[in-house]
Amino acid sequence: MNRGLTVRDIIFIGLLSAMCVLATTIKVPFGTGAMVHLGTAMLYTIGIVFGGVYAGFAGAIGSAFFDLLMGFSPYTIWSFFIKGIAGLIVGYLAKGRWPESGGRTGWLRMLLACLAAALWTLAGYFAAWWSVTGSQAVAIANIPSSLLTSGAGIVVALLLAPRIRGYVERR
Questions:
Q1: I want to staple 64 with a disulfide (CB 3.0 to 4.6 A). Which of 50, 80, 81, 136 is the partner?
Q2: Calpha distance 102→97 (Å, rounded)
Q3: What integer pLDDT is reported at residue 33 of this predicted model?
Q4: 58 with 46: CB under 8 angstroms?
């Protein structure tokens, strides 16, 4: 379906971007001392429910805005592209381009879409960490926390998205 952004789309994208910022501020401790955030869970959920365009813009804007707000400015442009493309990947593979694209998405399709986005995110942030810090060792050391964040995001999105999608489709 070829269509442009409407005022309604822009309003939804703005709201979903803000939700990405807020979810990224929610930290969940793991037993190993690692902390993961729920921004990835929000991004995957948005992609499954609303599709690639909404998730791509929400991920790009929300993640970049979070980095600016929280003092991670060296990563802002990286996050804009990494999370924007990750949102586009999960949304397009799980739902399609737009909220009205496709029908019901099966569990396996949602999982594969999230895994594809997680792999892209890992590769993108590996390059970002290496570039920003100048150290391959630092980039390698950050891999486990990235995998934990993506894993938690996938679990939360697979549990949350079908319920939210059912509510959104009734409206």
A1: 80
A2: 9
A3: 60
A4: yes
The string of pLDDT tens digits covering residues 38-64 is 999 999 999 999 999 999 999 999 999
Q: Which amino acid is at 164?
A: I
Prediction pTM value: 0.93
Residues of the chain predicted below pLDDT 50: none
Question: DSSP labels for 54-122?
Answer: HHHHHHHHHHHHHHHHHT-GGGHHHHHHHHHHHHHHHHHHHT-SSTTSSS---HHHHHHHHHHHHHHHH
Token pair listed for 28? 């969940």
Q: Which amino acid is at 22?
A: L
Cα Rg of the chain (Å, integer): 15
